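Name: DUF1003 domain-containing protein
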Amino acid sequence: MPRTERETLSEPGRRSHIPRVSLDPDTFGAFAEGAARFMGTGKFIVYMTVFVIIWISLNVIGIYGYKWDPYPFILLNLFFSTQASYAAPLILLATNRQEVRDKLSLDEDRRLAAQSRADMDFLAREISAIRMNLGELATRDFVRGELRIELRELAERLEANGRRDG
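Structure predicted for DUF1003 domain-containing protein:
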C-alpha cells in the first residue's frame, strides 16, 4: 500500500476505524453554559420534580396493568445517573469558561488600573510643576498689594514735598 503525505517512516500508517468528530469549542461551550445555567434554575427543579412524580405515579398505579419501572425504580435511577454523568462535565466546562472570562476581565482591569495610575502620576507631576512655576509668577493679589504699597509711598512723598514747598 503506498504511503500518503501524512505518513512518515517514523509513523506507520494506521487507519482508525473511529470517525473523528469535530466540534466548535465556542459553540459547544455556549451550549454547556446554557445547560449549566438552566440546571441552576428553579424551573429545572420544578420540571424534574414533576417528571419524577409522574414517573413514580405511573409506575405505582400502572397503565393498563403495565408497570415498566416497578419499585425501586431502577430505570429512573439509571436516567438520573446518566443525567448526572453529563451534567457534571457540562457544569465544569461552563465554570472553566467563566474562569477564563474572569481572568481576561481581571487582566483588563489591571491594565486599566496601571494606565490610570500612570495618568495620575503624570498629572501629579504636571500639577507640581505648575505650582512651582506659579510661585515665580506674580498673582493679581500680589500686584495689587505692591501697587498699594507704591501708591502709599508716593502719597507720602507728595505730602512730604508739599510740606517742604509750603
